[in-house]
Design goal:
The chain is α+β, with helices and mostly antiparallel strands. It has helices at 2-8, 44-56; strands at 29-32, 37-40, 65-66. It is 27% helix and 13% strand. Strands 1-2-3 form a three-stranded antiparallel β-sheet, with no helix packed on it. The chain is globular.
């Protein structure tokens, strides 16, 4: 994702690797701040879609979004 964002010339982006972020059951997860929008990304095409829709166009990659209904409260 970091390399692809650089290829696309997206300014002001920082891509960090992290652990599972309490969303391990969804596979690779991405959270974009400051909005706090969560995505699941299983392929490089998913990453391209997220970068284009969210960071380039300012919208959302709706089919890849994780919502509160996807996340079971722990406790």
């Amino acid at each position: 994702m970091k390399a692809r964002a650089k290829e696309l010339g997206i300014p002001g982006i920082r891509v960090n690797q992290a652990g599972c972020l309490d969303r391990c059951e969804f596979g690779p997860a991405i959270v974009i701040y400051p909005e706090g929008v969560w995505y699941k990304a299983e392929t490089t095409a998913d990453i391209d879609e997220i970068l284009a829709a969210h960071l380039v166009e300012g919208g959302r990659a709706r089919r890849l979004m994780l919502t509160e209904k996807d996340v079971v409260a722990k406790g």
